[in-house]
Amino acid sequence: MMMMMMRNVIIWALVLVGFEFQRSGSQVSEIRRTSFPEGFAFGTASSAYQYEGAVKEDARGPTIWDTFSHSFGKVLDFSNADVAVDQYHRYNEDIQLMKDMGMDAYRFSISWSRIFPNGSGEVNQAGINHYNNLINALLAKGIEPYVTLYHWDLPQALVDKYNGWLNPQIIKDFANYAETCFEKFGDRVKHWITFNEPHTFAIQGYDVGLQAPGRCSILLHLFCRGGNSATEPYMVAHNVLLAHATAFDIYKKIYKSKQHGSLGISFDVIWFEPMTNSNEDIEATQRAQDFQLGWLMDPLFWGDYPSSMRNRVGSRLPTFSKAQAALVKGSLDFVGINHYTTYYAKANSTNIVSVLLNDTLADSGAVTLPFKSAKPIGERASSIWLYFFPQGIRSLMNYIKQKYGNPPVIITENGMDDSNNPFISIKDALKDDKRIKYHSGYLSNLLASIKEDGCNVKGYFVWSLLDNWEWAAGYTARFGLYFVDYKDNLKRYPKNSVQWFKSFLTS
Predict the structure, then answer these.
(1) At 412, which helix (H) or strand (E)?
(2) Residue 457: closest CA among 507, 403, 504, 398
(3) pLDDT at residue 355 in the model
(4) What is the mean pLDDT of the chain?
(5) Above 50 in pLDDT, residue 409?
């Protein structure tokens, strides 16, 4: 343990030195596509449930998000994604938008319940046909598909059958679903992502209950119908890691040599800065990162959870058998990182949080906030959690380089939102200079991490191509490069950021 603690201290010392170096003015002044390494992928990102709609077409089965979004009070604007932005029918139109911008890749997810309406059993050929058509249409326009197998839309049938991610049975069912996708699409898909943000759906779905399936035991939460915030998030993450590793093992042994693809997993990562330079806050900052990125990354690189989690969670944290640890360790070709913002972290100096929550936040012993002395860490987007801090992406890339041996990284999501303000005209809504500023700043710092720091970053995906349905926020947030007119047949209009990216990508 002492060696692990020493290593963490050294890593944070290097990263904090990097912060001061960045603040001193080392940043790329002008960026263009050719500034990035040859083969670096630029694309946009989406997910099936947020984009497709057509929830009852072609034998698609219901998902936990269908159930959740149709439950009263779960979504901010009382909307659902039954139609979303209708990409199920409009994918050719949207692919042309990508092509016109100069994007060379598209990250989308496959809906498990379109392939297996009941989560397992008989394959639904209509689902296979749809994704074959989508993949072929992308390739015909020279756009590389990056396919996510699971972006939160678990078939409801598996929850009804055995409680979904809380039951180890799901490892086998996910592996079967993943192998079906490898078999049906792997001749053309060369970039696979097993899971999108397991940390998010473990916390939001099983700790605080604000996302599907809405489980928690927090005292102050009025809407949770069941759950145990002290144990279930850890169980979910454990089963996800084993499901991922099992899918990777199948791909490596059966498909990789003939399909020549790669497989990774995408994590949500807020960068954390210590609130002060005190030892207590620096240690709390490391714990905050352990309970976020380290929770999923450490097992994939070293075969076990961070020692800080073992020490603080105790018997509530599941254990890997020797065979499971061997299966999980090394089970990825690249790391996907969804990064949007940076927060301050400080030590939790009170037991109030622990008493009220008794969950993963309390377990970490860290409090994370986007403010210091009431001053925000940066300019805010529309979402209350999203603040601009472009240098955070550079520090995060260096942290991953230092701690995990510089693995290949793809930025699988990065972006910011405007509000869906009904009093703003479409003409004015297209003037998204704030978004241009955001992407320019983050891409400049990402480029610096590659060229000046030697970080092994291979791609950058904008969230998102289109304004879309944003989970519990419904249609209140607009993350798109293209404006979607929800009042007029979902027409797509290019925002100013489209022209900026077009100029950047064709320079």
Answers:
(1) strand 409-414
(2) 398
(3) 52
(4) 93
(5) yes
Q: How many Å apart are CA 65 and CA 81, to the nearest integer? A: 9
pLDDT tens digits, one per residue of 470-493: 999 999 999 999 999 999 999 999
Question: How crowded is residue 38: how many other Cβ atoms within 10 Å of its Cβ?
Answer: 5
8 A C-beta contact, residue 386 and residue 256: no
Spatial separation of the C-alpha atoms in residues 148 and 140, rounded to whole Å = 20
Task: Name which of 495, 500, 476 is nearest 426 in CA terms.
Answer: 495
| Per-residue H/E/C for 131-186 | HHHHHHHHHHCCCEEEEEEECCCCEHHHHHHHCHHHCCHHHHHHHHHHHHHHHHHC
Tokens of 272: 């954390």
Which residue is catalytic, options 197, 232, 273, 283? 197
Residue-wise pLDDT for 259-290, tens only, equals 999 999 999 999 999 999 999 999 999 999 99
* Sequence-ordered alpha helix ranges (H) in 379-482: 391-404, 426-429, 433-451
Q: The tokens of 427 are what?
A: 């003409």
* CA–CA distance, 464 with 296 (Å, rounded to integer): 25
User: Percent helix, strand, coil in the chain (nearest 5)?
Assistant: 45, 15, 35
Is residue 258 classed exposed, middle or buried when 0-12, 13-18 and 19+ CB atoms within 10 A define those classes? Answer: exposed
Q: Is 413 a catalytic residue?
A: yes
Does residue 225 surpass a pLDDT of 80?
A: no
Catalytic residue among 52, 144, 283, 413: 413
Separation of alpha carbons 468 and 480, rounded Å = 7
0.90 surpassed by pTM: yes
Report the alpha-carbon distance of residue 460 to residue 463 in Å, rounded: 10
User: How far is 459 from 338, CA to CA, in rounded Å?
Assistant: 12
**The residue type at 38:** E
At 94, list the tokens: 């949207």
Give the single-character DSSP code of 418. Answer: E
Fill in the amino acid letter for 63. T
